[in-house]
TrEMBL record:
Catalysed conversion reaction: a quinone + NADH + 5 H(+)(in) = a quinol + NAD(+) + 4 H(+)(out)
Gene: nuoD
Main location (coarse class): membrane
Organism: Pseudoprevotella muciniphila
Protein's recorded name: NADH-quinone oxidoreductase subunit D
EC number: 7.1.1.-
NCBIfam families: PRK06075.1 (NF004739)
Membrane topology type: Peripheral membrane protein
Domain NADH-quinone oxidoreductase subunit D: 276-444, 447-521
Superkingdom: Bacteria
Lineage: Bacteria, Pseudomonadati, Bacteroidota, Bacteroidia, Bacteroidales
Listed GO MF terms: NAD binding; NADH dehydrogenase (quinone) (non-electrogenic) activity; NADH dehydrogenase (ubiquinone) activity; quinone binding
Annotated compartments: Cell inner membrane; Cell membrane
Similarity-based family: Belongs to the complex I 49 kDa subunit family. In the C-terminal section; belongs to the complex I 49 kDa subunit family.
Residues of the NADH:ubiquinone oxidoreductase 30kDa subunit domain: 8-121
Amino acid sequence: MNLEYTIVAPEDLHKEMFRLREEKNMDFLVHLTGVDWGEEGLGVVYQLESTKSGEQVNIKSVSPNREQPVLPTVSDIWEVANIYEREVYDFLGIIFTDHPDMRRIFLREDWVGYPLRKDDNPLEENPLRMENEPLSDSTVSYELHEDGTLSTHNNVIFEEDDYVVNFGPQHPSTHGVLHFRIALEGERIKRIDPHLGYIHRGIEKMNESMTYPQMLALTDRMDYLGAMQSRHALCKVIEDAMGVEVSDRVQVIRTIMDELQRIDSHILFYSCLAQDFGATTGFLYGFRDREKILDVLEETCGGRLIINYNTIGGVQADIHPNFVKRVKELIPVIRKGVDEFNDLFTGNVIAHNRMEGVGVLTKEQVISMGCTGGTGRAAGWHNDLRKHRPYAAYDRVDFDEITFEEGDCFARYMVRINEIEQSLRIIEQLIDNIPEGPFQEKMKPIIKVPEGVYYTAVEGSRGQFGVYLESKGDKSPYRVHYRSTGLPLVAAMDAACRGNLIADFVAIGGTLDYIVPDVDR
């Protein structure tokens, strides 16, 4: 959709955002995108939504001072803004006044420059450093005075007598190269400080020098268990911006592929959680069934993990002649596998003891923290975009939105297990009714997106995956920002883990279900 926004001056921003939160019930900060607008200045586009009415509001605020861009924090209004604003500070250098933790979140703390600025030259300013990265136990908070000057004061992250342990970045149960510093009181978690960026590849920056077809390959390499859905979102935002309508056949094929990818993701979620708990048999059962899904995807797409299937205007190849037959054969196999998962793990007393009442997040917390997908639905937040903002072929199928109220590890686990059945229901309704039509619309050799700002979101395997696209009418985007499904989940680890045992850390992280390359874009 074309993103229309209201411009608010920096000095009025916090007051206006607070008003929207209180008077309009804009309780969900969907997205926060930092942009370098050149001579206009550096600023942020905020996307807000009311979870009660579904109304959406977009706000743009720009700091004209490129030497010292300043905006007020909104992290006291929405918790997820804490990590979003740190990301903007890291890559664009915008200082958010009254933010409690103005440190970099991805790049080294001693990094020089801000890579997403159009005039930044990181290679010249950052020679190869062989020494260890400095890690501070305190951080700076900025205060803006009426005369326009800034003052700073230190906030303590860890006290001198805190007992701090490192979890990751090498530990397999961090589900990727993540580094958590954990302060303990006895065996109970007092505070968690995440350090990201170990796998960072600068995908958003690379997109600025790529053509639109070239960009597509990188989406598969972010959340590799939501590759179909992420690429679907990028193709959709480009198609919507250009006014391209894909065929009904493509819409149905994309929906089926998205759901096969979701089943693949949820089975791997189960498998890795079982392995984290020491239930290796569950891990092997899950991988056994997941292989069958990958076989079907490979026959049509040619890939198993990096799938490269959706294209601008359609899909790269029509479905294989065996596709319908093999998918129909797959459905009872997956159902039988889920029954075995439940017999082996779901009803196991050890699994119940380790998950029930552990890592509880309330509905208000998951909304404020932007934890969409299964994590939000496990706390009672109805947020499934397939139901509430249908796209592709989701408006023609019947399925249930799985929600629980407990908000603990077990509820998050059960959402994923039960969603496998709903995905199978969606596929069953479509697989015999794939309409005829072209699998690819005729596109120009060089694709140019009309000037404007656009946003599209889909329901990824672990939450809302969105694409913010700003175009100047060229063959490459001016700015692309992906709404990572995993970044809010990593940010929620501190709240979910506090007061729990260090032994619960693995269960909480596993059921929040973040994927690190999706976090590190």
